[in-house]
Specification:
The chain is an alpha+beta fold. Helix content is about 45%, strand content about 25%. The protein has two domains: about 10-90 and about 135-150, no CATH class; about 90-135, no CATH class. The longest helix has 30 residues, at about 60-85.
Length: about 150
């Protein structure tokens, strides 16, 4: 299989490498979720009436919204980097089926990660073994997980 159907393909028509496109989309969504949307909420919440029934000016609203956006970004950045430093290990649980058989009658054709064909005359399934795959998350994956976790 070639082209866009393979994982991390280096050629995908006129788009080229799609991993850069997905990284751009992920970062764009994070910017909207962590900067644009909180600014809009804080800007709306900064609208107030003075004691003389005068509306708050647009400049005051924007300054107050920027101040609270920076405060929330500062707190979020601290939580993000502490979490990335200590919690970035991904653990994926897996279960494997144990098959015991006569070695002369056993034939297994395997590809990377999956069995295509397992054939034997004398098969004995002894049960499942549990294990886990561990790997470190990239900063882009951790950013997506962090944004999803905080609920924006």
């Amino acid at each position: 299989m070639t082209g866009c159907a393979t994982y991390r393909s280096s050629y995908c028509g006129f788009l080229g490498d799609l991993s850069n496109l997905w990284l751009f989309i992920s970062i764009t969504l994070a910017v909207f979720a962590l900067i644009v949307v909180p600014f809009a909420v804080f800007y709306y919440e900064a609208y107030d009436m003075d004691l003389d029934d005068q509306e708050t000016s647009c400049c005051k609203q924007a300054c107050q919204a920027l101040r609270w956006t920076f405060v929330s970004l500062f707190v979020g950045a601290i939580l993000f980097f502490i979490g990335f430093m200590f919690l970035r290990t991904i653990r994926i649980p897996i279960q494997a089926l144990e098959i015991t058989s006569d070695a002369s009658n056993f034939n297994a054709i395997a590809t990377y990660g999956t069995f295509i064909k397992v054939s034997s005359q004398l098969k004995t399934f002894t049960g499942f073994t549990s294990s886990e795959i561990t790997m470190d998350a990239t900063i882009a994956v951790w950013l997506i997980a962090f944004v999803c976790f905080i609920g924006w």
